[in-house]
Design brief:
The complex is a heterodimer of chains A (113) and B (116). In chain A, 0% of the residues lie in helices and 58% in strands. Chain A is mainly β and 113 residues long. Chain A is globular, with a radius of gyration of 14 Å. The model of chain B has no long low-confidence stretch (mean pLDDT 92). Classes of the chains: A mainly beta (113), B mainly beta (116). The A-B interface holds A 31-32, 34, 42-46, 49, 51, 89, 91, 93-95, 97-98, 100-101, 103-106 and B 4, 42-45, 55-56, 58-59, 90, 92, 98-102, 104-110.
Chain lengths: 113, 116
């Protein structure tokens, strides 16, 4: 069964610190893996999109990595800011059109001063 | 460029009623996807439309339906509402493809549906 798991479920860090969020998936083969940021009460915003052949993708202070062999992805946030407080969702899209896109449960990040 | 807009933003209905939600994609985008988000199940894919044709469908009952118009605007309909349909309904637009493609998806703010 295709699944996407994320850890930790929630995380609290001090402003200015770095953090890494994890995503483990069983979807195979897959077309792409995405990381989204979702602020409370708003729609998700795309951070990175990677195909199965890409290892890393950066977007400002956000860097996503992908290890297709171990079926793991991580999202590293550098020099966190209060505005980084949000839910971060890992999404894996299967290669075949008849399979459904799978969303992870998300990691809730709180950045405190 | 205007973003994805969804109307209404909030909606309260009672069990057994039906509801229609609307989504206007970013100008020039031809793909619209719909998602349901609940605290218990998280985000789940409902369906995707491209050029007025349903291209992909999630695992939801037939009470959930949708359509897309020639101007790419999309509507989602839920008939015979149940308490469990209470959720945030999000739509996302992309230039050509949905979540299974490499195209970036842009989400709207969502419609918060409460079923009493």
């Amino acid at each position: 069964k295709n699944q996407v798991e994320q850890s930790p479920q929630s995380l609290i860090i001090l402003e200015g610190k770095n953090c890494t969020l994890q995503c483990n998936y069983t979807v195979s083969p897959f077309s792409n893996l995405r990381w989204y940021k979702q602020d409370t009460g708003r729609g998700p915003v795309s951070l990175t999109i990677m195909t199965f052949s890409e290892n890393t993708k950066s977007n400002g202070r956000y860097t996503a990595t992908l290890d297709a062999d171990t079926k793991q992805s991580s999202l590293h946030i550098t020099a966190s800011q209060l505005s980084d407080s949000a839910s971060y969702i890992c999404v894996v899209s299967p290669k075949t059109s008849y399979d459904k896109v799978i969303f992870g449960p998300g990691t809730s990040l709180s950045v405190i001063p | 460029k205007a973003g994805v807009t969804q109307t209404p933003r909030y909606l309260i209905k009672t069990r057994g009623q039906q509801v229609t939600l609307s989504c206007s994609p970013i100008s020039g985008h031809r793909s619209v996807s719909w998602y349901q988000q609940t605290p218990g199940q998280g985000l789940q894919f409902l369906f995707e439309y491209f050029s007025e044709t349903q291209r992909n469908k999630g695992n939801f009952p037939g009470r959930f339906s949708g359509r897309q118009f020639s101007n790419s605007r999309s509507e989602m309909n839920v008939s015979t509402l149940e308490l469990g349909d209470s959720a945030l309904y999000l739509c996302a637009s992309s230039l050509l493809g949905g979540a299974t493609s490499y195209n970036e998806q842009f989400f709207g703010p969502g419609t918060r549906l409460t079923v009493l």
